[in-house]
Amino acid sequence: MESRVARNLSLVPENVTEEIFRGRGYAAQLQIVLRELTRSGQVTATAEDLVTKISRSFTEALSPLSCCESGKVPVSSDCQLDLSKKRSTRRKMQETWTRITDMPIEDGYTWRKYGQKEIQNAKHLRSYFRCTYRFDSGCEATKQVQRIEANSTKFQTKYIGHHTCQDALKSSFVAMDDSIVEEGYLLNFETKTLPKQDPLFFSFFPSIKQSEYNPSCSEYLPPQDLTKFKSSVATTEPLPSASQSSHGYDISDHTTSSSSSFDMDLELMDYVYLNDVFLFNDEELPKT
DNA sequence: ACCATTTGACCACA
DNA sequence: TGTGGTCAAATGGT
After folding, report:
1. What residues contact residue A168 under an 8 Å CB cut-off, 6+ apart?
2. Is the CB of A142 under 7 A from strand C?
3. What would the DSSP string read from start to end of A196-261?
4. What are the domain boundaries of chain A?
5. I want to staple A141 with a disulfide (CB 3.0 to 4.6 A). Which of A91, A133, A163, A286 is the partner?
6. Is the CB of A89 under 7 A from strand C?
7. Where is this region: Disordered (predicted)?
8. A231-263 core/surface letters (b: 16 or more CB in 10 A; e: else)
9. Nearest residue to B4, CA vs C1'?
């Protein structure tokens, strides 16, 4: 018997999802405004905290609804809420959900890899990540990333549990609605606790040199770099500068945004957008 | 020196 | 007992 949750998810109209995305985007914008007002003493921290909660609620609501979008896969097989009894007994009470993407996703959280395993009947290793702030904040969110056998250019990321750390705020800004991107809105969260930029970022945008990078003038990526990004991903060639393990593609470099030593401060949105704006839909790929 | 990743060992469950 | 998940010492990069 189909669960009510699953039935409801399958019936959610696309425009409802879009509307939730839009609402979250507005909440994010409002939070920025409030933050400015808070600095000037016109708004209490409580108000800003409320907006944070609103934005977080949007994120939580969207997680089961939007998880299929980037992978373009059926809900039933790849993005269902795993509410069945058959789940890891070590994570009995943890909710899980899965995303299928064309590359390991940057989800705005900081992860630390704590292991990898060969999985039976799987060609590629499965990598295990926990929240970087597990010991600082007691955040028990984890994820597992594995390259998919049937289509080895795709990666499956299984999330287990929700973030309870301060990093949760960051995820509120992941995948803002398209209008914000198209209109070139800048969301500058002005936090120094954001994850440092992943080295792979520069391999996607060769025109941006790390040594020449000036955070003050890179409010968003120029269109030509976005084009390069898309076309570089569109090919199935090995990613530039991506490390190769003995088992093939090494996902560890792409799934963490934890402290690398790059002394630069790209805004989080810059690269969060990239993963959610580009759907890597085959029909849209340039034919070369 | 510090921190993240790697990797073999260990543990829990079916 | 096999398998998947986690731990922790070793290793490597900055």
Report:
1. A56, A59, A162
2. yes
3. PPPHHHHHH-TTS-TTT--GGG-SS--HHHHHHHHHHHHS-SPPTT--EETTEE-THHHH-----S
4. 68-284
5. A163
6. no
7. 237-259
8. eebbeeeebeebeeeeeebbbbbbbbbeebeee
9. A112
